[in-house]
Amino acid sequence: MSLSNSSDSEQMSFEGFLESCRAPTLLAELEDDDDIGDDDDENDDDENEDDDYEEVMVSRSFLSFMVREDDTYAPLIGGPAGKKRSWDDEYVLKRQFSALIPAFDPRPGRTNVNQTTDVEVPSPPEDPQQEIANTLEEAMITPGYSSRLTLSLRAPNLPGVQDVEIDLSNANWTIFHAVQELIQRIDFGVGTRQEKLRRIWEPTYTVIYKEAYGGDDRFGSLSPSSLPVLSHRGSVVAPLTPTSTSACSVEDVLQLLRHLFVINTSSEDTHSPLIGTLDMDETVLSTEEFTSKKMTNKLIQQIQDPLVLASGALPPWCEELNSSCPFLFPFETRQLYFNCTSFGASRSIVWLQTQRDVSIERTRVTGLSQRRDDSHEFRVGRLKHERVKVPRDGDKLLAWAKQVMLTHCDHKSILEVEFLGEEGTGLGPTLEFYALVAAELQRRDLGMWLCDDDEVDSQPPTLDLGEGTKPPGYYVRRSCGLFPAPLPQNSAACDRAVSNFWFLGVFLAKVLQDSRLVDLPFSNAFLKLVCQGDIQNNINERIGMLPRSCDDDPMISSIMSEESEKELELDPPKLYSEETKPWFAGILKETDLMAVDPVRARFLRELRELSNRKQRILSDPVLSPDAKVRALESLALVTSQAGPVTRLEDLALTFTYLPSSAVYAYTHADLMSNGSDVDVSIENVEEYMDRLTDFCLESGISRQIEAFRAGFSRVFSLSKLRAFTPSEVRLMLCGDQNPQWSREDLLNYTEPKLGYTKDSPGFLRFVNVLLRMTGEERKSFLQFTTGCSSLPPGGLANLHPRLTVVRKVDAGEGSYPSVNTCVHYLKLPEYSNEEVLRDRLLAATKEKGFHLN
Is 822 marked active-site? Predict the structure, then answer.
């Protein structure tokens, strides 16, 4: 690969050109990682190490090396600072991974880098909300430059073959990804894709750099129209002209499958017009019937290609079908694809190494391996662990957690947490930190979640979510789960909620990135927003195609014009104008409002029935105008509760939203300008219903959801979760929130050792005690032994490492059980009966902290 200026006659040095274009600042945007490791380790022991990968894997972020001023990169720029520097064609560029450290080398005499490093977290400021607000503001600002550097890739530089050039304006591409795109555009005289790919290393690829002038704004805004090759969803190129009407394309088949899947999965909705006339006993199919084994095998084959996966150059159909047609793949396959592609190249490389280790171990167990492989020779590196230390301070834990996430949100390394003044390190304290923060996020006084003051009386007298016993109403506990509280978007209460939702986004993304579990009882409606809707919301999206304007088709345009005129005659436009809708508009329906706010939803349903009766009166051709007026004046609300009928005007409603709790610190929110002065009447009841529903499900939670997405996307893109249903996302985030086990599960998946066997009386008493535990006691036991109150998907069978029970030596009836949480290691004394064992075990679960035992 070579580097060239767009003008051979230009005498300006490359370094000077970069500096004039402010390249250091510009190219920093293209980097995948924040910091660049030292280059010294790469030169150690060169005689024993070979580069087993192609140099073309180097990301475009390698260009940032050219502008470094230290001597480490002197060979690249021709010498130390102060001398005229030029490009060295012999210099080899290698991509750096800030989340990786050198692989462990077991050979004698080798020095290995410690995998865990300490990271200093600054103390929380007096106003952490302002710091997050500044972070959000910076994220919304598009940087401007007086001059810009644009890049393109040219090939093949071969005689007799015309050169082709493509823009490198997509910051998410690696060089290898660009090479794959470019090779398909080159006319070698051979037509098949496979033959072109076999010749991928024949051309010389030249990176062309030039200064962007005037309207060349390819770096200023990565809008869908500016991205080369990719569609608006970053996927397959599709022709803008329609295909032949007699041919059935792949997109048509996929769209048909999507419609069939929606009809099948909507069977529970008895109000659906698609379902009303169908015999559901015959039409309901298992979702497994829609799974494609061939596509599943093909997807698994693609992600097992090391070069393609590590360089982020998977075929576009992989991402497209995962998000548009997730029913084609089982949950396990989609989760596998998610884990190996969502978290950057460092995590992908470690995933590949882990898969290779599993494969080698499998062949050794079966006796197929004839020799011992030196696994360190095939390792690029190990994943770095970064440890932070925070105080176990209940009052300031959330503020410290925000500082941790602000510091670590852009890092791809694994986050570890240690509590100050405690000896415990590793997985146990880290899981405890996540559990404590999850409990803090459920606090009622934060004003984040929808709640009702009347619900406090129905809560249990005390509640312990890991922070000790709390009084009723301390946490938001609702049967439907947590849902954002609608707030006036320009209020101080909303500003506080926005700060917390940004933190929640980073927090949940870190949970997924590091494979943790948190016990947060989210509502199904909120998880719908996290998934960016489901397949029913996205059914009308064309598979892999750019959205085509109907104006391009004169026939469609004419038909739509005629229909629009008829619709305007029958239903004149409303008096109020629609504001700009948020990105999640239309995802939530009235059924979701019924789940999260049933009282308000029932009232809206009564208003809807009143509106329907009004419309029937107005459309009745038999009634005279005077009769219609009298009929409208006699309309009254029909409630589900027995009592006198009520006219709408008697309720004295105005265009305002009244909060369900005093915790939000506001009395009402106007649904329109001066809404408190506008009365709700039979004439404008429809507008009131629309505005109230919109405030509850969209406009009242808009800033909160935008902040959540912004925080989540600091770790990885929220769009990656489009491949999953709300229930699947709940399983990935929270695990099994209602842990259950049977005697067979405990005997099969719990390992008694060092003094206990599966037939020991002490161990059998332990099993009996676990079987008698209530739901909350099971969660407390899991929190005590594993650091998380939930079980992974699959229950005890998928708990790794397995729960190990050993006999605690020199311990009598008065001693208590203790644990090594990191390895799920329970030290249990031999008690004389089950009652004593139960009392001691439950007492131990209430103890907090990680100390030597």
Answer: yes
